TrEMBL record:
Mg(2+) binds at E779, D803. Substrate binds at R596, R652, E779, G800, T801, N802, D803. Its EC number is 2.7.9.1. This is Pyruvate, phosphate dikinase. The lineage of its organism: Bacteria, Pseudomonadati, Candidatus Cloacimonadota, Candidatus Cloacimonadia, Candidatus Cloacimonadales.
Length: 907
C-alpha cells in the first residue's frame, strides 16, 4: 500500500501544493502554496494535511507522532535551510507559527500559536540576533500566554472571570501606575514570563515545556483538537460545514511585526467588504503582532490615505492630527505600501475574487501570511460580482455563482445600523422566522397593536403564539415575537409573507397576559417597554435600535436578469392578497403558486361570515353564510388576477383547521351569538362539537369540500366569475384550481366533479368561458405513492412539503418546536426538515410522486408551495427532480430565482 503524503512543503517560490488542493491542505495551506508559485513573498513552511487530522482523531497523539515524526523533522530542516536558522539554536534560533486551516474558512474558530521555539536558551539567540531585548522578552511572554491557553488548557475559572494572564498583567500595570502594555519594561516582561509559567504549573499541574520539539508536537495536536472545540462545532453547524472535513496544520517561519517602528502587521481587503466599492482598504498597526489587531488593544490605522482621510472625517479628527498621530501605511511606509498594493492587485487578478489578506512587515520587508476569499455583506457580494463581470475579470456564469442566494435576504429587509447593534444587549434567542430588523414597544394584544399604531407608536406584538385573529395586529406591528411555534408556524409563515420581521419559538419567554408582562431569565419587561428583534438571527434585544432601509441597487436587477437567463425553473409566489401579489411581481414572480383562500377570511366582517358558515348546523345555514362570502372572494380574486396580469394563479380551495376560526373566549362567543340571534349555549355546543383532538389530521382540506360540497361550489364560482370579469376588462387570466390535502384519487375526482360542473354553470350564465386547470396539492404520503392514479385526473401537482414533512416524519408542525432544537443539538437531525427539505426521506416521496404523475401524464405541471420553495438547497433539489416551478413568499422570490439559476448551472 502506498503511504499517503502527509506533509507539503513551501518556500522560496516553490511549493508542493497549490490553490486547487484546498480539501487536503485547507484554505490557508493551499493559498500559501499558491502565493509561492506566483511570486508573492511568503515565509517558508509546511502544511500537514486535513487527512492527518482524521488519522489523529482515530489513532491518538502517541501513534500519530510516531507516524509523522520523520516528515515533520524533515520539514523543519527544510525551513531551516531556507531561512538559515536552526530550530532550538542558542545562537540563531528559528521560531515558527502553528496555525489551523480548514477547507472552508472558519475565521477565529480554531487555534493559532505564535513564536514557538522560545525557551530560556533560544531567547538569548533571539536577543543577540535582533539586538532588542525588550522585543525578545515580549515575544516570549506572548508565546507562554498563547501556548498555556491553547495547548495546556489554562482557562479562566468561570465565564465571568478574566483571562488569568491579563489579570496578572493588569496587576503589574496597576502597581507601576501605567496603562499600556507598551510601557512594560524588559524587566517587567522577564518577570511576567516567570510568573506565567508558575501559574500554569499551579493551575494545570503541567510544567511548561522548554524543549522546542515538545512545544511543536503539543501545538500540532492542539490545533487538530481545536477542530472539535465548541466554537468550531457551533460555527460548522451554522454554516453547514461537515464535521468529517478536519483541519490542516500549517507551520511557518515566524516573521515579526513587533521589531520596532519599521515593523508592522495588518489585514487588508482588495475591495470594500461592506459596500463592495472597488477600493483597496484595511488596517495596520506599527510595531505589533497579528493578535494585537484582532484583540483591539490599540486602535489600528488605515492602510490607504483615502481610507484614513474618510476615517478621520467620521471620527472628527483634523488632517494635521491624522497625519501626525494616525498616518496611513501609504504615508508612513510609502515603498512597502506600493509593494503591498501591487501584491493585492496581483492576488485579486489571480484568484479573480475579492481577497482578504494578512501581512507583516519585518524591518521594512513585506511578507504575506494569508490570502483568502473575503467574506462580504449581501450588498458587497452583488456589487463585486457585477463589477468584476463588467471589468471582464469573470464571465456571467461565474458572476451568478458568486451570489449566495440566502444572503440576498439582507438586501430585502430593514437592517439595524452597525453603531446601534454594537451597543445593544441580547436578552434571549428564538428562531429567525422572518428576516429583518425591528424595534418597538411591547404590546401583548392585536387590538392594542392596532390602537397604539394608530397613535403613531411603533410596536412589537408579543404573543404566546399567533392565531388568525392576530393578523391585523401583526400587520401594523414592526415585528412579531412568539414564545412558541416553529418556522412553519402561523406567525412565521404570515410574517414572511408580509416581509415582516419575526422571531418565533423563543422558549425563554414567560408571557403573562394578565399582568401584561414578559419575563426573560428573571427580568420583567412590561407593556410599553422597548425591545428590538433581529429576524435574521433570532436575537431579541433590549431597547430601541436604529434601523435603515435596504437599498436595491441597479446591480440587484442585473443579477436577477442573469438568473432568469440561466434558470430552468420558474419562480412563483405564495400570496393571498393583491398587495402581496404586487410585491411579488415587483420581485419578479411569474405567477402565484399558492393562494391560501382561508387567509382571505381573517379580517373584519369576513371572519364573522366565515364563523357563521362554520357554526351553521345544516346546508341551508351554510349556504346563507357562503353567499355573504362569495362577493368578497370574487373581489379578492379579481385583484389578484389583475396584479398577476396573465401569469397563472393557483387558488387553493379552503383548507382551514376549523377550530382556528371559531371563537374560544366566552366574550367572543357571546358576540357571535348576538349577531346570529342564537342562544349562547348553542354556540358553545357547536364550538364543542367542532373540537378535534388532532385538528391537523382532522376535518381539513378536501375532506371539508367533500363533506360540505357547497363550499367548493361557492369558491369555484368566485374563482370563475372573477376570471370572467377580469377577462372582460381585457386582462388575460389563467386560474388553476387546487384541491388541498388529497390522499386518494377518489377524493380528488369528487372535488373535480363539483368544480367542473360549477364552472360550466357559470360559463352558461355568463355566456363566456375561460381556460382553467384543476390540480392538487401532494402533501400526504399516500398521494405521492398513488400519484399515477391521481394524475389521471389532476392537471397539475403542487407539493405541499410543510404537511408532507409533517406526515412523513410524524412531527407535528405546531409541536415540533419542543424537541426539534434538541434533535439538532444532538445531531439526530442535520437540519430542521421544515426549513431544508429532507432529501433522503421526504425527497423520495417528492421524486416518486413527480415520476409517477408524469408516467400517466407526461406534461404534468409540477411545483412546490411548501416553505421549502424559498430555501436555496431545497430549490436545488426541486430543480434536480425536474419541477416546473417553485413558489415561495414574496420576499423570498429573488432568493429562489438565483438559487434556481445556480442549480441549473451546477447541474
Ligand atoms: C403545505 O402543507 O406545504 C402547504 C403549502 O400548505 P399549508 O402550509 O397551508 O398547510
Ligand atoms: Mg398543507
Amino acid at each position: 500500500m502506498n503511504t499517503p503524503k502527509r506533509v507539503y512543503l513551501f518556500g522560496n517560490g516553490k511549493a508542493e501544493g497549490s490553490a486547487e488542493m484546498k480539501n487536503l491542505l485547507g484554505g490557508k495551506g493551499a493559498n500559501l502554496a499558491e502565493m509561492n508559485l506566483i511570486g508573492v513573498p511568503v515565509p517558508p513552511g509546511f502544511t500537514i494535511t486535513t487527512e492527518v487530522c482524521t488519522e489523529y482523531n482515530k489513532l491518538g497523539s502517541a501513534k500519530l507522532r510516531e507516524i509523522l515524526s520523520d516528515d515533520v523533522h524533515n520539514a523543519i530542516r527544510h525551513i531551516e535551510d531556507l531561512v538559515n536558522m536552526q530550530f532550538g539554536s542558542a545562537e540563531n534560533p528559528l521560531l515558527v507559527s502553528v496555525r489551523s486551516g480548514a477547507r472552508a474558512s472558519m475565521p477565529g474558530m480554531m487555534d493559532t500559536i505564535l513564536n514557538l521555539g522560545l525557551n530560556e536558551t533560544t531567547i538569548q539567540g533571539l536577543i543577540k540576533k535582533t539586538n532588542n531585548e525588550r522585543f525578545a522578552w515580549d515575544s516570549y511572554r506572548r508565546f507562554v500566554q498563547m501556548y498555556s491557553d491553547v495547548v495546556l488548557g489554562l482557562k479562566p475559572e468561570s465565564k465571568e472571570e478574566h483571562d488569568p494572564f491579563e489579570v496578572i498583567i493588569d496587576t503589574v500595570k496597576k502597581e507601576k501606575g501605567i496603562s499600556s502594555d507598551l510601557e512594560l519594561t524588559t524587566e517587567d516582561l522577564k518577570n511576567l514570563v516567570t510568573i506565567f509559567k508558575q501559574t500554569v504549573e499551579e493551575k494545570t499541574g503541567k510544567k511548561f515545556p522548554d524543549d522546542p520539539w515538545e512545544q511543536l508536537w503539543g501545538a500540532i495536536f492542539a490545533v487538530f483538537d481545536s477542530w472539535n472545540n465548541e466554537r468550531a462545532k457551533f460555527y460548522r453547524k451554522l454554516n453547514n460545514i461537515p464535521d468529517e472535513w478536519g483541519t490542516a496544520v500549517t507551520v511557518q517561519a515566524m516573521v515579526f511585526g513587533n521589531m520596532g517602528f519599521t515593523s508592522a502587521t495588518g489585514v487588508a481587503f482588495t475591495r470594500d467588504a461592506a459596500t463592495g466599492e472597488n477600493l483597496f482598504n484595511g488596517e495596520y498597526l506599527i510595531n505589533a503582532q497579528g493578535e494585537d489587531v484582532v484583540a483591539g488593544i490599540r486602535t489600528p490605522q488605515q492602510i490607504t490615505k483615502i481610507g484614513s482621510q474618510r476615517w478621520a472625517k467620521l471620527a472628527g479628527i483634523s488632517e494635521e492630527e491624522r497625519l501626525s498621530k494616525y498616518p496611513s501605511l501609504e504615508e508612513a511606509m510609502p515603498e512597502t505600501y506600493k509593494e503591498l498594493f501591487e501584491i493585492q492587485k496581483r492576488l485579486e487578478n489571480h484568484y479573480r475574487d475579492m481577497q482578504d489578506m494578512e501581512f507583516t512587515i519585518q524591518e521594512g520587508k513585506l511578507w504575506l501570511l494569508q490570502t483568502r476569499t473575503g467574506k462580504r455583506t449581501g450588498l458587497a457580494m452583488i456589487k463585486i460580482a457585477m463589477d468584476m463581470l463588467r471589468e471582464g475579470m469573470i464571465e456571467e456564469k461565474t458572476a451568478l455563482k458568486r451570489i449566495d442566494p440566502a444572503k440576498l435576504d439582507e438586501l430585502l429587509h430593514p437592517v439595524f445600523t452597525k453603531e446601534g447593534l454594537a451597543k445593544a444587549k441580547v436578552i434571549a434567542n428564538g428562531l429567525p422566522a422572518s428576516p429583518g430588523a425591528a424595534s418597538g414597544q411591547i404590546v401583548f394584544f392585536a387590538d392594542e397593536a392596532e390602537s397604539w399604531a394608530a397613535a403613531k407608536k411603533k410596536v412589537i406584538l408579543v404573543r404566546e403564539e399567533t392565531s388568525p385573529e392576530d393578523l391585523r395586529g401583526m400587520a401594523v406591528a414592526q415585528g412579531i415575537l412568539t414564545a412558541r411555534g416553529g418556522m412553519t408556524s402561523h406567525a412565521a409563515v404570515v410574517a414572511r409573507g408580509m416581509g415582516k420581521c419575526c422571531v418565533a419559538g423563543a422558549g425563554a419567554l414567560q408571557i403573562d397576559y394578565k399582568a401584561r408582562t414578559m419575563t426573560v431569565n428573571g427580568k420583567v419587561y412590561k407593556e410599553g417597554d422597548w425591545i428590538s428583534l433581529n429576524g435574521s438571527t433570532g436575537q431579541i434585544l433590549e431597547g430601541k435600535i436604529d434601523t435603515q432601509d435596504p437599498e436595491l441597487s441597479g446591480d440587484f436587477g442585473a443579477v436577477m436578469q442573469l438568473a432568469d437567463k440561466y434558470t430552468k425553473m420558474k419562480v412563483r409566489t405564495n400570496a393571498d392578497t393583491p398587495k402581496d401579489a404586487t410585491v411579488a411581481r415587483n420581485f419578479g414572480a411569474q405567477g402565484i403558486g399558492l393562494c391560501r383562500t382561508e387567509h382571505m377570511f381573517f379580517e373584519g366582517e369576513r371572519i364573522k361570515a366565515m364563523r357563521e358558515m362554520i357554526l351553521a348546523e345544516d346546508e341551508t345555514g351554510r349556504k346563507k353564510a357562503l353567499a355573504k362570502l362569495l362577493p368578497m372572494q370574487k373581489n379578492d380574486f379579481e385583484g389578484i388576477y389583475t396584479a398577476m396580469n396573465g401569469f397563472p394563479v393557483t387558488i387553493r380551495l379552503l383548507d382551514p383547521p376549523l377550530h382556528e376560526f371559531v371563537p374560544q373566549e366566552e366574550s367572543a362567543q357571546k358576540e357571535i351569538a348576538e349577531e346570529l340571534g342564537i342562544p349562547l349555549e348553542k354556540v358553545k355546543a357547536r364550538v364543542a362539537s367542532l373540537h378535534e383532538v388532532n385538528p391537523m389530521l382532522g376535518h381539513r382540506g378536501c375532506r371539508l369540500g367533500n363533506t360540505y360540497p357547497e363550499i367548493t361550489e361557492m369558491q369555484t364560482r368566485a374563482i370563475i366569475e372573477a376570471a370572467l370579469a377580469v377577462k372582460a376588462r381585457g386582462i388575460s387570466v389563467l386560474p388553476e384550481i387546487m384541491v388541498p390535502l388529497t390522499s386518494t384519487a377518489e377524493e380528488f375526482e369528487m372535488q373535480e366533479d363539483i368544480i367542473r360542473k360549477t364552472a360550466e354553470k357559470v360559463f352558461a350564465e355568463k355566456q363566456d368561458r375561460v381556460d382553467y386547470l384543476v390540480g392538487t396539492m401532494i402533501e400526504i404520503p399516500r398521494a405521492a405513492l398513488t400519484a399515477d392514479k391521481i394524475a389521471e385526473h389532476a392537471e397539475f401537482f403542487s407539493f405541499g412539503t410543510n404537511d408532507l414533512t409533517q406526515m412523513t416524519f410524524g412531527f407535528s408542525r405546531d409541536d415540533a418546536g419542543v424537541f426539534l432544537p434538541v434533535y439538532l443539538e444532538k445531531n439526530l437531525l442535520k437540519h430542521d426538515p421544515f426549513q431544508i427539505i429532507d432529501r433522503e426521506g421526504v425527497g423520495q416521496l417528492v421524486k416518486m410522486g413527480t415520476e409517477r404523475g408524469r408516467k400517466t401524464r407526461p406534461d404534468l405541471k409540477v411545483g412546490i408551495c411548501g416553505e421549502h420553495g424559498g430555501e436555496p438547497s431545497s430549490v436545488e433539489f426541486c430543480h434536480l427532480v425536474g419541477m416546473n416551478y417553485v413558489s415561495c413568499s414574496p420576499y423570498r422570490v429573488p432568493i429562489a430565482r438565483v438559487a434556481a439559476a445556480i442549480a441549473a448551472l451546477n447541474d
